[in-house]
Amino acid sequence: MGQKAWFQCSSGCDEKYELNEINYTCRKCGGLLEVRHDIEKLKRRKPESWKKLFDERYRKTRWPYGSAVWGKKEIVCPNVEDTNIVSLYEGASNLFWAERLGKMVGIESLWIKQCGNAHTGSFKDLGMTVLVSMVKQMISEGKEIRGVACASTGDTSAALAAYCAAAGIPAIVFLPKDKVSTAQLIQPIANGALTLSLDTDFDGCMEIVRKICGENIIYLANSMNSLRIEGQKTVSIELVQQFDWEVPDVIIIPGGNLGNISALGKGFILMREMGMITKLPRIVCVQAARANPLYQSYQNGFKEYHPIKAQKTHASAIQIGNPVSINKAIKVLKQFDGIVEQATEDELANAAALADTTGLFNCPHTGVALAALFKLVKRGEIGKDERVVIISTAHGLKFTDFKIKYHENNLEGVDPKYVNLPVELPPEYGLVKDAVLEKLDAANS
């Protein structure tokens, strides 16, 4: 199969393991593992040749390279045979030029990477295609794997259920009861996953799923399994590709379990090592103020980190008080001149709603990132001439309850500034005409 990747300890002891081993942490020191590639072999191909190859494959029909993840197979997971790849044509999501919103904020080049425009409606598909494909590869090699499981705040469970259903592999998902949206809950149910609703939070679900997987030959699908990171890092590569291989100045992303931060960083560092880019962007990670352990650590220069009990937030997917990838995220933020910001419930809801008025349809987590953008521009930490990308992690249709309650002024801790409710009228021309003209007059004033 040519070049292969491997697991290696990320904590400094450099222990190595095969990708087809069922192992998530270093057996020597307990550190998280990460996937490594032979950079010297990759560099034997010239940077322009890599760019040409990736551009030729992008969104084409040749299996499996039309996927924006598997179109970069050599630097993602070359260990999987093409016949074992489980792909739902992930990636290649729209890079939305938010021109109107940028002008409102005061910057000239604002873009929204709409990762929610995906098969299951979130960026989690990018990592799950790699993980489930590797599970299928291991099963084909004779490994005993009874199923694949994850703890989730909604989006991970949807991605796992869909990809396992496509592969014919049993999926088990652990969800915190009453802490995910109805749209998120129905996805794994519809795809046939065993769905366990536990009366705890995400951190409690995570504790149980790790034990279940460790004792029962069930493969763990959370982001502490760095196969997921390999797929998610293609967001970095695809962003640069969509900008004709130019690196944006600033990337802002919401953070919960923080695997997305390490993934973003890994993609950019890999491209720089391969000679495809020469500079790195600044990365801004944003947390909900009610679930902000990374933000608290950033406030003391990352000298200390303490897990917290996350409080209820409308940004439910990032309601995590003890993120698994904390150390990796801090390492990346230090390398990328990183900033960590937070957003209150009022800030995130109103930021999402304002952006919606310009043609977007944002999840609350994207609202978290947008709220940080507004603050950083106001403080002068982002310049008006910088190219800024917001990573939108999920589709707004997964959070219709959040949006309805916003416009009904029924969200806890939120004073809605952009309410827009239907106008109920009898079917009388005069009344309808008056309502229409009144609205147009207000819009044009």
Could you characterize the architecture of this molecule?
This protein is α/β, with parallel strands linked by helices and 445 residues long. The protein has a domain at 95-121 and 229-407: Rossmann fold, CATH 3.40.50. It is 39% helix and 14% strand. It contains 16 helices and 13 strands. It has a 6-stranded mixed β-sheet with strand order 4-5-13-10-11-12, with helices on both faces. Strands 8-7-6-9 form a 4-stranded parallel β-sheet, sandwiched between helices. Helix 4 (124-140) packs parallel to helix 5 (155-167), helix 9 packs across helix 10 (259-273) and helix 10 (259-273) crosses helix 12. The radius of gyration is 22 Å and the shape is globular. It starts with 5 loop residues before the first strand and ends with a helix.
What's this entry about, in short?
This protein has 445 residues and is of the alpha/beta class.
Break the fold down into its secondary structure elements and pairings.
Layout: E1 6-9, E2 16-17, E3 33-36, H1 39-42, H2 47-57, E4 95-97, H3 99-105, E5 109-114, H4 124-140, E6 147-151, H5 155-167, E7 171-176, H6 182-190, E8 194-198, H7 202-215, E9 218-220, H8 227-232, H9 234-242, E10 250-254, H10 259-273, E11 282-288, H11 293-299, H12 326-335, E12 339-343, H13 345-356, H14 364-378, E13 387-392, H15 400-407, H16 429-444
Parallel strand pairs: 5-13, 6-7, 6-9, 7-8, 10-11, 10-13, 11-12
Antiparallel strand pairs: 1-2, 1-3, 4-5
Helix pairs in contact: 4-5, 5-6, 9-10, 10-12, 13-14
Alpha plus pi helix count? 16
User: First CA to last CA: what distance?
Assistant: 65 Å
Mean pLDDT: 95
Given as residue ranges, the uncertain stretches (5+ residues, pLDDT < 50) are none
Backbone shape: globular
CATH architecture of the domain at 95-121 and 229-407: 3-Layer(aba) Sandwich
Helical residues, percent: 25-40%
CATH names the topology of the domain at 95-121 and 229-407 as Rossmann fold
Biggest β-sheet: strands ordered side by side in the sheet: 4-5-13-10-11-12
User: Any idea of the CATH class of the domain at 95-121 and 229-407?
Assistant: Alpha Beta
How are helices and strands ordered from N to C? EEEHHEHEHEHEHEHEHHEHEHHEHHEHH
* Rg value: 22 Å
Number of strands: 13
